[in-house]
Amino acid sequence: MKKLLLLSLALSSLSIAAVAQHNSNNLNFNINRSAKTPRFREQQQMPGNSAYNYNPQNQLLVAEQPDNQVAVQCSVLMNVKADSYLAIFNLTQMGSTAKEADDLIAKRSQPFIEALKSLGISQSDIYSDMIYLIPIYNYEMEKKLFSKTYSEVPKGFEMQKNLHIRFKDSGLIDDLVTIAAANEIYDLVTIEYFVKDSQAAYDSMRTKAINYLARNMKKFEKLGLKVEGEFRVISEKSGVTYPDSQYSDYDAFVSQSIDAARDKTITSIRKPKTVAYSKLSYDAFDLVINPEFLEPVVQYTYELHVNYTLNKDKLEPKNHYMIMDNNGNIKEIPVK
Hints:
Layout: H1 2-36, E1 44-46, E2 50-52, E3 69-80, E4 84-95, H2 98-117, E5 126-143, E6 148-167, H3 173-182, E7 187-194, H4 198-221, E8 231-241, E9 247-251, H5 258-262, E10 273-277, E11 287-289, E12 298-309, H6 312-315, E13 321-324, E14 330-333
Parallel strand pairs: 3-11
Antiparallel strand pairs: 1-2, 3-12, 4-6, 4-7, 5-6, 8-12, 9-10, 13-14
């Protein structure tokens, strides 16, 4: 019975520790994420010299407008999977001569390029970008009778190249890194994401935003807000965020050893640096298209603002003067 009690207490402690670690990790990650991710909604000046204030509660009507103006807005986010990718690997090589440096870097790059063909990547999808070839100098001291001078003497050469690799299947990234490491290529500089038809994404978001505003304005018409045929100012803003700029890092939660404290020995525990993909927050958008995804995506953003200027005659109440004659008949007296 005592053993079962101790086991239950141990499992409870592990469960509490796991929850605490998750909460701490998530807090550190979100702090770095919010510091890196720009807020999509911000105050800006709308045409017509009217202050347009974003509403954090995603309400359709925006306050602080003149009496005869009504401003509405819609923010849309669309997640799009990339059509193709570009991986860039860096190679740096040193040699006693320029030819030796070039030969050594070719011995690393050529087997790598040949192995890429087994993955279905053709030669036309590979590009070798020459970065530089520079001499390396060493200082040699010359002894003279009354002085010492130092002169630069060529010691060797350093060559650097980048290999650009284009591919369409995102699942090949792991294979690329493995093949590169087998050929002593360890520096993956970046991975670029490309979408063929960006305009189609913006057109789709624009249509969604227009329909969203039209549906909501019909609801407000039931409350007596008539805006049809009135003067209006329309503005829009669009943008795009690529995955390579959306990775946030944080220090993983690590606790000190209890045994070390009992022995009065302080042990320094290394806290690993963790990096994770951080999408744009959905909180700042009224509509999100393709909200669920597995791999990092290209995120397109679109805002539509409509500022209605209403007719004051329709808004201001009119005074009506009535008169009753001796017979009890009531009629209106026209007053201009």
